[in-house]
Amino acid sequence: MLYRRDLLSIEDLTVGDIENIFNLTNYLKTEEGKNHKPLSGKTVALYFEKPSTRTRVSFEVGIFQLGGYPLYLDNKSLQISRGETLADTARVLSRYVNCIVARTLKDETVRELARYADIPVINALTDREHPCQVLGDIYTVKEKIGSYKGIKVSYVGDGNNVANSLILISSKLGINFSIASPEGYEIKNEIKEKAIKYAKDSGAVIEFYNDPTLAVKDADVIYTDVWVSMGEESEEEKRNMIFQNYKIDLQLLKLAKSEVKIMHCLPAIRGKEIAAEVMDGPSSVIFDQAENRLYVQKAILSLILG
Known about the structure:
Structural class: alpha/beta
Number of strands: 9
Shape: globular
CATH topology of the largest domain: Rossmann fold
Largest sheet: 5 strands, parallel
């Protein structure tokens, strides 16, 4: 169970925790599950320092559907903007609400909230990880393929927060994982070492490449993300040049398995990291993947607050 626990990283979850989330997600997608209201009378604060479409909407809708009240807050509307400390903000919110969902620029911010809050804190994205995203992703893999154990997920692109969480969850669950990133844009050694350690226990094969054609060979799933994340806009021209050979197009798909599934955490820049014909093609499960964020996050909230 996750009851009254923080979810700051995939590292916080055991394999059993992940399976519990997926099992409850299955139930919440049924007609009976739509009447599940464990958050009745409870308020969840959504503290967002970054713009958001899927994360904000899926959490707000999910909290409402579970019978709770979503309270959206940004740092400009709080007294943080006038100098109140994050620690004091966390202490005060703990007296008013039942949980904090935080989407922050820095990973240390969500950890500081958790350090001083007396209520659970959920990481809705930081510069280090995006755990709720990849829980929805791997749930989608299981839903579409039937299992995740022993399949191959290939990630092509920047070794960013999504890639960090994806390699951690894959290595924990026994999913073979390969990643291709340009030199200098790879996953950091700290995350690599943790993934390799988890893989020794699960039996997962973890591979690192600079060449995307090597990474996607015989892949069951090909995953990509934007080349320029929020906060990196000043590097856009440079990154577009460096990543130009890391595009998911029909030619690259030919190297994977014939039934390969294409995933993207969105938003997508069509024609850059992914070709429009791939995104809209028969292999794409991108919008099912986005929808499943809603159900998986409802499961997480139910297990933490229910």
